[in-house]
Amino acid sequence: MNTSIVGKQFELTESIKNYVDSAFETLSKYNLDIISGRAIISADEKQGKKGFDVDFAINLAHKDTIVIRQKDKDLYAAIDLAVERASKVLRRHHDKLTTHKNKDDEKASLNQVSEELVEGVDEVIPTELELYKPLEIEEAIEKLKASGAQFYVFNDIDAKMRVIYKRNDGKFGLY
Fold it and tell me: Which of 37, 42, 54, 131 could disulfide-link 8, Cβ–Cβ 3.0 to 4.6 Å?
């Protein structure tokens, strides 16, 4: 993992750099593809009060960048809080990847079940429906014509599940 530590309006010491490096190392325990980590530490003085801003930017492979901003009076406390928040985000992502079944495993199990249940039918191929985008009826007709299938299942603009099908006389029917 590439790490960069930048101090704005603030002189970075070796102990602060080592502390931030060790903080980034603790984030590698989630076994995610962390490409790079960037820490920007800046001194902030408003209304006579001193404080520190710590910004973490963590780049994950095949995922968006995680950006965490933390403010505190104590620099080390701000770093600790930012690492805790980053750890929480990375743990959620890691748990999501490890606890949810892989889609390929689900498809393989669907194929096995369908082959066991239906022995008299030539072939049953389960497919996933693309129901996430509502379509106009005209768009559904165009998709049905383009696919060459007998029917097409879609959600209309009113979020109702609809089925459009080809009739024997060449026209289209709608449920």
Answer: 42
Say how far apart CA 45 and CA 107 lie, in whole Å.
57
Lookup: tokens for 29: 């325990």
pLDDT tens for residues 42-90? 998 877 678 899 999 998 888 878 899 999 999 999 999 999 999 998 8
Strands in 65-72's sheet, in edge-to-edge order, are: 2-8, 34-46, 49-60, 65-72
Q: What are phi and psi of 23, to 5 degrees?
A: -65, -40
Q: For the sheet containing 151-155, what is the strand order?
A: 151-155, 161-166, 172-174
| 5: confidence class by pLDDT, cuts 50, 70, 90 | very high
Please give the Cα distance from 41 to 51 (Å, whole number): 11
d(CA 34, CA 89): 13
Question: Distances in Å between the alpha carbon of 104 and those of 100, 108, 111, 168?
Answer: 12, 6, 11, 37
Burial group, residue 50, by CB count within 10 angstroms (0-12, 13-18, 19+): exposed
